[in-house]
Amino acid sequence: MRVLDAAFWSPGSSRHALAGPLGFSASKAKALVAGLIDQGLLEEAGTQPSQGGRPAETLRLHHGLGLLLGVDIGVTSLTVAVLRPDLTLLAQHSEDIDVRRQGPGVVLARAAALMRELLARCKGRAEQVLGIGVGVPGPVNFEAGQLVSPPLMPDWDRFSIRDFLRDDYRAPVFVDNDVNLMALGELWRLQRALPNFIVVKIGTGIGCGIVCHGSVYRGATGSAGDVGHISVDHEGPRCHCGNRGCVEAMAAGPAIVRMATEAAEAGESPVLAAALAERGSLAAEDVGSASRAGDAAANRILQHAGHLVGQMLAAVVNFFNPSHVLLGGGITQVGPLFLAAVRQSVYQRSLALSTRQLEVQYAPLGAQGGVVGAGALAMSETLRVRGVAP
Amino acid sequence: MRVLDAAFWSPGSSRHALAGPLGFSASKAKALVAGLIDQGLLEEAGTQPSQGGRPAETLRLHHGLGLLLGVDIGVTSLTVAVLRPDLTLLAQHSEDIDVRRQGPGVVLARAAALMRELLARCKGRAEQVLGIGVGVPGPVNFEAGQLVSPPLMPDWDRFSIRDFLRDDYRAPVFVDNDVNLMALGELWRLQRALPNFIVVKIGTGIGCGIVCHGSVYRGATGSAGDVGHISVDHEGPRCHCGNRGCVEAMAAGPAIVRMATEAAEAGESPVLAAALAERGSLAAEDVGSASRAGDAAANRILQHAGHLVGQMLAAVVNFFNPSHVLLGGGITQVGPLFLAAVRQSVYQRSLALSTRQLEVQYAPLGAQGGVVGAGALAMSETLRVRGVAP
């Protein structure tokens, strides 16, 4: 039954490609797949481009298997999506929240309402839900489905997200850190072809999802990837964690907004000053649009933040030697200058051997990364708990 | 045949404990083990303490299988050992070398001579050698058995260590980075019970071996663990790599010796001044013995170096969340003050969640770590290439 797991991770594969690596003979593979199609678990999904011989029929998890719900809770945003078993997005909705001020009851009630609305919008029923994946912006006890001592959202400590969301559905609920889910989503998109890479989310905070030896690595106590509190300046400002010069305190969204507000107030940027006067406060996107309009102060701020993030990443790259560093989160909307500064700093400060084949780029799944990852968690863990995956 | 691999990793296990996790029934396990004993591959090694029932007979790889050769090449030391298949040390010899001045031909010829001498000393013959493991102080292309662009020893770049040593024996030669081998050795000592930890070697340079998801992690291009060039002071001295404030340039053996020499010359330490006058130069061990004698300058130097190493490790701990940080290399001989300073700095600068269960200690295998790891590499890879391990 590992064929179903393989079909999830490698959609669009032929019978042979799915069953071959599992050690089955061609005739056994054919019989297995035929059985799974008969049971309504797999279905054919068109033919592969022919390379001379008869074109091979490709396979995917059967759409009739059911639906997945993906919930991506960021510090300041909530996204909910309904997905097919092959992670096609059927419906999706995002809105602003603030987990630093809103407790788990409020945020999760809103998530549950959106799940019902979106399911109804695509004519799905609660009984059709196969699995639910939830990403949250803090360290997670994966087995318990709870946040553990999340620095930014103390009200959520040990609140059972799983129990809260499970009530409406018979489906299992899986909870993981939001950046781990972005990493899982990219791993799925890559069909597991890259075994060692990281995804860095830069938004209100800075966190990192790690893929090691081909699977998501959560660390000895579930807090791996907590790179926001790596120090980049021992004389830097004090962070809420108590230490000085944490990269999160100096280069994440709020730090960029603070630098932009200072620049606007100091008369260094007419564009930012106008935006500040108009709305009374600035957002990271204002710095992005000012930068794209050629504003020198905005450019300087984004380059400074990018250099600091790159300095932190240089340490990570020296230690972990990943093949790819994928950047995600709100910061990816500020334009190319930030990415260029990150790259420059990483390549300058990491050892040549670690960067020779290193790619630093924005995460290809972009803003969808969180919910696609949540869907990937829901499907892969559902297959696992039902006993069909390793 | 995975039973042999299990017997290597879990010496002293009973039939049941060896074969059980591999999914064999009790009767099948019994038959398998009996067959392996008949073939001279496994042997009985005494009984386990009884817990009520009949005491279980423990098993190990048969001593008659052959011998392993382990070679640990550090920047300034060469250690060669002959080991049994269960990694019992039969003979061992260490001497000073300097790979920065001596090319691969000279060092490897000496290693080969020592291999012959030590084999003869324990009445072994070349034909009995099952496998050879070699650790080298630089980044290694594991498949090719070659160093790749080693910063400290450019003469060794792409020299085929494997071909050089293979000539005398029919056994396979495996080459890895010295710190990866220390990590492999500790993983073997722990019987693979800890899946996520790091070993940090502090000697002439600083490097790190990583165990992730239960096996040694080498990175996308084999340079994972190259933590010596993580910056701990952006205004710090320039390192040979071109960057500023690398922890290796500020806190490894040569930096400790430099600080000690300055202290001796500035009249800050009568003990160090006497040692310097006596021999014309100082070594890291002089700082250790001065520190143990209560010398204030030596204490200050070791604390300073320990704090810098701890600062680098704090970044690594935040990112990787290991359960253990094991310190090895020459620095472990300088006494407890260095370790205390490392600990203090790691616990202060890492997030509470990452350090709640973190252990920072000297590596239990100590100076044997390199050759035990080389033996573990030789045995595990020999089992793998012969088709008996995963």
Q: What structural class do the secondary elements of chain A suggest?
A: alpha/beta
Work out the largest interface and the residue count of each chain. A-B, 50 and 50 residues
What oligomeric arrangement do these chains adopt? homodimer
List the uncertain runs of chain A.
none
Query: What's the arrangement of strands in the largest beta sheet of chain A?
Result: 6-5-4-7-10
What's the domain count of chain A?
A: 3
Anisotropy-based shape of chain A: globular
Q: Determine the CATH topology of the largest domain in chain A.
A: Nucleotidyltransferase, domain 5
CATH C-level label of the largest domain in chain A:
Alpha Beta
Proper CATH architecture of the largest domain in chain A: 2-Layer Sandwich
**What is the terminal separation of chain A in angstroms?**
10 Å
What would the average pLDDT of chain A be, to the nearest integer? 91
Keywords:
homodimer; 390 residues; alpha/beta; Arc Repressor Mutant, subunit A; Nucleotidyltransferase, domain 5; 3 domains; five-stranded mixed sheet; 14 helices; 20% strand; transferase (chains A, B); kinase (chains A, B); ROK_cs (chains A, B); kinase activity (chains A, B)
Tell me about this structure:
Chains A, B: This is Glucokinase-like ROK family protein. Chains A, B: InterPro entries: ATPase_NBD, ROK, ROK_cs, WH-like_DNA-bd_sf. Chains A, B: It comes from Pseudorhodoferax soli. The structure is a homodimer of 390-residue chains. Chain A has 390 residues and is an alpha/beta fold. The first copy, chain A, has three domains: 2-64, Winged helix-like DNA-binding domain superfamily/Winged helix DNA-binding domain (Arc Repressor Mutant, subunit A); 66-188 and 368-385, ATPase, nucleotide binding domain (Nucleotidyltransferase, domain 5, 2-Layer Sandwich), CATH 3.30.420; 189-365, ATPase, nucleotide binding domain (Nucleotidyltransferase, domain 5), CATH 3.30.420.40. In chain A, 41% of the residues lie in helices and 20% in strands. Chain A has 14 helices and 15 strands. Chain A has helices at 2-9, 15-19, 26-38, 104-121, 161-166, 178-189, 247-251, 253-265, 270-279, 284-292, 296-320, 336-349, 352-355, 369-385; strands at 13-14, 42-47, 57-61, 67-73, 77-83, 89-96, 129-136, 140-141, 146-147, 173-177, 197-202, 206-212, 215-217, 324-328, 359-362. In chain A, the strands form four sheets. A five-stranded mixed sheet of chain A has the order 6-5-4-7-10. Chain A has a five-stranded mixed sheet with strand order 13-12-11-14-15, with helices on both faces. The radius of gyration of chain A is 22 Å and the shape is globular. The model of chain A has no long low-confidence stretch (mean pLDDT 91). At the A-B interface, strand 12, helix 11 and helix 13 of A face strand 12, helix 11 and helix 13 of B.
